[in-house]
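Q: Structure for this?
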Amino acid sequence: MNARDFTELDRLLNRLVDGGLSAADETQLDAWLRDDAAARDWYRRFMLLHADLQWDHGVSVGLVSHEKAAVTAAAVSVLSREPTRWMWSSFAKPAAMWLAVGLLVVGLLLSWRLRGDRQMLVAPAPAPSIMTLDAIQGTADWRDGTTTLRLVDGSESRRLAAGTLFLEGDDSSCQLRFEDGTRVTVSGNAEAVFEQDSQKRLRLRRGSLSADVARQPEGCPLVIETPTARVEVIGTLFTLVADGEQTALDVERGSVRLQRLVDGRQVEVHDQRRAVASLDASAEMQAVQIGIPPAAWRQTFDQPPPSICKGTWIAGEGEQPSRVRGVPCVARRKTSGEPIVHHGITARSGVETQLVTLQADSVLRVRYRLTGEAPLRIMLGTNHPGGSFAGNFEVKLGSQTGMVDADGWRTLTVPLSGFQSLIKRFPKPQDGSQVSLVMFNSHEHDVGLEVCEIEICPRSP
Amino acid sequence: MDDQPQHKPPSLCYLEQVTLVQRTLYGVLWSLLRNGNDVDDVLQETNAVLWQKAAEFDGDREFLPWALKIAQLQVLAFRKRRQRDKLSFENEGLLASLVEDSIRDVEQVDSRRRALGGCLQKLSTDHRELVLKRYETNGSVNGIAAESGRSPKAISEALRRIRAALLECIERTLAQEVRT
């Protein structure tokens, strides 16, 4: 049984099957299931129990009668439903004959199944490992079908069987390496499935994935699927960013074929080019040169920020500027599963763009205020110009840092050199790398953090 | 000229596969649709498509993942018809995740079902009868409450505890089976 406490989820699920689940409850349930793999697992077990009880009418009433009824109904529906009427006219007699044979088989199978219920259970053999964990930042779970493994700092070099990676927290990242040297970096709130038989197969359900792919065997490309696209890779360096509606592919080196699932259209994406596959089949699908973001970027909050950013927007009034207030976010989890919650804001680029290009003399300026005291932290997520992951970097601050004005607003300036690496492989921010994410939060305590301006730009002369 | 599609009758082996996956499809569809009538409708539609696509099935592939993918598409089509998309499963990714997780764990389905039979026997008579009443045709919390003179809330709470006990018992049974 899962060690997590699912009391509230349990109540929702019971209301779901017994009546009394409101639309708001259902929305909450879906959000929960979308973001939490363990909750999804619990949900499926619960619904399977409910379906089994429903199917059996309390088991004793009769497996056989229900099963026969279901298959008979299914078979009859084949012949009676409007969309399949053509079948009747074209091969009524053969269909009826095969249906009769089918129902005979059903009877035989049912008796076989009842015997099969007494078959001995065999403990499954451990699955072979297919890859190695190279580095981990933040909280990650690895599910390989029967077990869930918590990956933490210090889990490096662990061998992993085929399974699903769940990353939690915008600043989380995980680097994995296949036997042939193919490196995959998954970052942000992400979920990705890794499998390998004669070829490597990945499914990125959400989040960002960069891969430096070693030359793959002829006829066995590495395949990655997202909710909206499929890519096949022979050997290249690229990044995919996917959500439920679109997938952006940036190719740094080599070439990748991107297929839009909604209509099957494909486009070949070469070095330093980008293509996007969405659910909109009328959108033109083409590979375009990856643009270089400007060296200066400034975010104010006169308008509500895009939904991919985090924070509660507050309209300006009087002398007070418009701003965003920090919201709770799960930064990572303790080994017990208990979440560590920070309170902060996030500014990030969309699927297709980066915020700003870093230079050696870049500085970050932020204007903020607090109602209490707690350690503060600013984090930058960066990518190489071709889109591949270039590391996460942070700076830690005290609450009193920066100059303060009469309204309590502080202005803080941090040079790029002040940021520390969070991943050994990327020791410092690279000149020319691009920022995709800026996080500013208070550690574990809500101190009413509000931000009215963030800027990254070259240091003024 | 006859432009009707040529239909090859399903093989016995194919019919056997369709039969064997009925209950698993039913269970997965419950997690995707959450409503018994909808589950019945989509299961029938899925079976109709499975029948039509018999000739397309490659016998070297596993049948259940293929059938589940067809069921998934039928759920999407059903939801579009019902215009319920805004009420649940706002993104199709969640639906796909549930189907993929079900495919991955499919080997456990029969074990869970067998374990459930034993766990039901371990319930007290009162609890077992409550489960039977709830899951008999047209059984409902309100109906049981009216019949027993207890409040619907009390019945719901009792069912919640019983389901929790059954889930725990199933997990314990599966863990013991793997150890032995």
